[in-house]
Amino acid sequence: MPMTLVLDLLPYAVSTRSQRVCSTAITVGEVDYVALSTAGRFGIEVPAGAVRQGSLRLVHVQNRRLSTNRAAFATWRNLLRSYLPGLARLTYQALRTPASVVIVSDPALLPVGLMHRRRWRSRLVFAARERPGSVRTKGSLATYVAYAERPIIRAASARIDLCVAACDSHGEAFRQMGCAPVIVCRNVPRRPRARPGLSPSIGTLALVYVGSLYPGRGLEVLIEGIAVCSELGVEVSVEITGWGDQRYIATLQEAAKARGVGHLVQFLGPCSAEEVPARYSRGAVACVLYEPVDDANDSLPSKLFEALAAGRVILASDLAEVKAVVSTFRCGVTTPLAPAALADALLYLSGLAPGDIASMADSSWRAATEELNWETEELPLYSWLSYNATGRRGAGRERYW
E strands of 253-304, at which residues? Predict the structure, then answer.
């Protein structure tokens, strides 16, 4: 019998938040992770079935391949033909799996968590990725679901035994909806053991972007900012890594060519989690550019912390949560996401002495190794799980919750 059951819509390989939570739960006891075999706006798919990795058992229930068409009819077809049957299988699998603690990562799965809590008398943990009701992306099913998230959370709040938020503002939002206790565990990677090297670039400011590619991530503005710098005689290049709709990527490539900077904007395609540090090693500055198009973007994205763990200078949009981290640790610059403002930030970075770039990069590395790492962030969650999943406190650990 697993001590902890983790429920997610996303396959394990692409759900960084659940990976962090599972890594903590494994230190307490056996963990079962149950999710759909295909999910997300890019229709990322993994083989259905059960696989054991030590104390972690991954169970991906079968659901139909998703259409990546953004039209409304395709979105609803995905719901009826893929998500609803997959959710039924996920619910069946969850309810036949006894566990002391059930952790759900999405408001849509809270009803499943409540049923498990009632059947097995488990403790329910809501480990939320984002601010509730915040997704507003055209053509995304999550946008429609977002309207129901707040009512679902309010209805379930009295029976949620612990809420785990990704940043302070999210935690306050959950408290206002009746959740208590609420702890904050930022979605940071584990403490890095080795700092990636830097591939040299002569006469060019080398940027790196690693993350999903879709509107709202500042890519159009970045291309325009690079073009403005090029017109002023300053060469700035960027290597872009990540999943994305091929039609959207083609649009970005055409925009770069039209502005005469196609040779400075390279698309490398997606990479595995293990390859992320190597991708960051190809540039001195990491891009964390989120446009204020919906509340989900004003958060603390994984790419910010991955860039810090790689010891890279941060170039970020000036959204409140990200700006606070960059200013606190003095690890980069923030800018409004407008072409002229972004170009000014690029010109500023390109004009810095190598020692100044190295100093900001060192600040990023210290932030990741000394504070912004999962070994630090997981302490309140570890304490709660060790007390509730096993009936005892973690040996030698303070009770943080």
Answer: 265-269, 285-288
